[in-house]
Design brief:
With 483 residues, the protein is α/β, with parallel strands linked by helices. It has helices spanning 37-55, 82-90, 94-111, 127-139, 168-176, 218-230, 244-259, 290-295, 300-308, 320-338, 349-363, 369-381, 386-400, 404-422, 436-450, 454-466; strands at 2-5, 10-13, 21-26, 59-66, 119-122, 143-146, 149-152, 191-195, 215-216, 234-240, 264-270, 273-275, 278-279, 316-317, 429-431, 469-474, 477-482. The structure holds adenosine monophosphate and zinc ion (ZN).
Length: 483
């Protein structure tokens, strides 16, 4: 595939260090609050990228960190630790906050069909490794101790600004803006590897280290976690575009200083989801979550569809109107798939191969997901039988993950139940919030009850409850709502 590489500012043919294998790293969430749908835009696009690489036949090892310590309110090593802020806000311990929001994050990912990476490593689980790498950086003269903290010495690098073509002075001013200067730093871009002198006496998580009791800086965790689980040669590193500087810039500095050779070949940055008032951000406090979309009656996969309709390297403006349009188009697409007849013959392998070839070329052109969605409509219009269409749609959905066939089956079941009910043959009427997947479960529960499989019916009720759905039996049917 061809992919834009932010480190070279060019679209390049994707290559890997070991043929056939991709070592992929993703910056994970800072778990002090719910992920907002902007964060999740990044994770959706990274998920499609991973699945496309697998679709192309690569064996992918995807690693993700969970930031549960060290990420300060400002990326320039100042401000309060975000985890501590979250703990204070909710009057809980930092570890409770981390556990709760990590769980919530993967719950949201599941609703959006985002696959869990092969390795997920919380930062607090690898502190000894961070200390070891920082010690090596000091030994090799890339880091120094000042005022109790350990800093990375950026003056030792021949090139620091990898992602930006800006003038260095302009950037440095940007770093300093609104941020008090740390007098311990030898150079304006130096950054903290290990804090001992925290301004925050109540810093909750601290570990012993050769430089005193303290905690790691934010950037070191990603370098160490990647080097441990991806090895020395990273093929692909992902994150939102706000991570490029200083976070990824500092990751490169540390990793290459430690390894003594180039580290990551390919950088993939997803641009922001914006609202009319700017970037959606957790620290602003006002943001949209997957649960909120559900409360408003949206299927989370309609949001995934909305994201796939635009290119990852362009900012995406969120508005309810835009989401409504995407949700409508998604529903229509499912309806068209539900109307296909699969039992009408054999899959035409040569026609399927042609459709797949186009999909590979289109999506393989810098992860053009909107063309990937267009390919779905091409399949629906193609002069081939229903069996072929369904097989190809299922195949493309390995990458797009829109649950196309499952949703279509659920819609067919629902329509069949409604038709049965309308014909008055003891049918079952469902009143809900218009989610065919939930309707299908409700119907299955009714069927289980009819067959006197009460344990099965209870299991389905519990499953619905776990998804936040409450169901009430009424004469001739059931009513459900999200609570
Ligand atoms: P955080 O939990 O703040 O560490 O962010 C998790 C991921 O979401 C990182 O890769 C960020 O770069 C990304 N991100 C943050 N805000 C947005 C946004 N508005 N749109 C897209 N991605 C974002
Ligand atoms: Zn990171």
């Amino acid at each position: 595939m061809y992919l834009y590489n932010s480190a070279t500012h060019k679209k390049e043919e994707f290559r890997t260090h070991t043929p056939g294998r991709v070592e992929m790293y993703t910056c994970g969430p800072t778990v002090y609050h719910f992920a907002h749908i902007g964060n999740l835009r990044s994770y959706i696009m990274e998920d499609v990228l991973e699945k496309f690489l697998r679709y192309e036949g690569y064996d992918v090892n995807r690693v993700m960190n969970i930031t549960d310590v060290g990420h300060l309110a400002s990326d320039a090593d100042t401000g309060e630790d975000k985890m501590l802020k979250g703990a204070k806000r909710e009057n809980k311990s930092v570890m409770d906050i981390a556990k709760f929001y990590t769980c919530a994050f993967f719950g949201d990912c599941a609703k959006l069909n985002i696959k869990t990476p092969d390795v997920v490593q919380p930062a607090t689980g690898l502190i000894d490794e961070f200390i070891r790498v920082v010690s090596v950086l000091i030994d090799r003269g890339y880091a120094y101790v000042a005022g109790g903290n350990v800093y990375f010495d950026t003056s030792r690098l021949s090139r620091y600004y990898v992602f930006n073509d800006h003038d260095e002075e302009d950037l440095a001013v940007g770093v300093r803006e609104g941020v008090e200067e740390d007098a311990n730093k030898h150079n304006k871009n130096d950054f903290v590897l290990w804090f001992t002198k925290s301004k925050f006496e109540d810093q909750a998580l601290k570990w012993d280290s050769p430089w005193g009791v303290g905690y790691p800086g934010w950037h070191i965790e990603c370098s160490c976690i990647s080097m441990k689980f991806n090895g020395e040669w990273l093929d692909l590193h992902c994150g939102g575009v706000d991570n490029a500087f200083p976070h990824h810039t500092n990751e490169i500095a540390q990793s290459e200083a430690y390894l003594g050779h180039p580290w990551c070949a390919q950088w993939f940055h997803v641009h922001h989801l914006n609202t009319s008032s700017g970037k959606m951000s957790k620290s602003k406090g006002e943001f949209l979550t997957v649960s909120l979309l559900e409360e408003k009656g949206y299927d989370p996969l309609a949001y995934r569809f909305f994201c796939l309709q635009s290119h990852y390297r362009k900012g995406l403006v969120f508005s309810w109107e835009n989401l409504d349009n995407a949700a409508g188009a998604y529903q229509k697409l499912i309806k068209r798939i539900a109307a296909l007849k699969g039992g009408d013959g054999q899959v035409d392998e040569s026609a399927a191969a042609k459709l797949k070839e186009k999909f590979l070329t289109q999506v393989g052109n810098d992860l053009n997901t909107s063309m990937g969605v267009t390919c779905l409509y091409d399949v629906l219009k193609a002069p081939v039988n229903g069996a072929t269409k369904l097989a190809v749609l299922e195949d493309f959905d390995r990458v797009l993950s829109l649950s196309l066939l499952e949703k279509a089956a659920a819609l067919r079941e629902q329509e069949a139940a409604q038709a049965k009910s309308a014909s008055g043959d003891g049918g079952f009427t469902i009143q809900g919030e218009g989610d065919p997947a939930i309707d299908a479960l409700v119907l299955r529960r009714a069927e289980a009850k009819k067959a006197k499989d009460f344990a099965g019916a209870d299991r389905i009720r519990d499953e619905l409850k776990a998804q936040g759905v409450e169901i009430t039996d009424v004469p001739g049917g059931a009513v459900w709502k999200r609570v």
